Amino acid sequence: MLNENIKKLRKSKGLSQEELAIKLNVVRQTVSKWENGLSVPDSSMLIALADELDVSVGVLLGETVTDPMPDDLKTISEKLEVINLQLAKRSMVRLKAIRGILISVCALIVITFIILAAMQSSYLGWDYNNPELAVAGTIVHGFEFVFVRLAPIVLLISVVGIVMTYKKR
What we know:
Blueprint: H1 2-12, H2 17-24, H3 28-35, H4 43-52, H5 57-61, H6 70-119, H7 131-166
Helix pairs in contact: 2-3, 6-7
């Protein structure tokens, strides 16, 4: 019974005799002898074998081990399907969030351009002898200078990002 249990448990774990032998620091022929009933592992090896196969020593020695039922495989495949659906849903939510952020960036850039165009650089006519207006005018002019140069690049990158999020996978 020990030999049959070792063989069934090893196969259910998807291990070859060689792989199990490596994990137990023995040669493949030793595992083969155990499975063919030509020898038995000593007590310390029996404990190590049970640990590798994730069972108790009692299961190895006496209790019969049944092959996995087809229903078990069906249950596992159903669970994997649920997990895959959850991952796909999470991915879609993340994609929609990124798309929303990119659309918001585009809208913000366009609105800022409209505001700057409506101002028509009116700050250039301010009285710069007044220190407060001089500081405010310099800040607005610096913002406009940097914005007009960087915003088109950011807008282009955002539009490309939006298009990429709508592409079919």
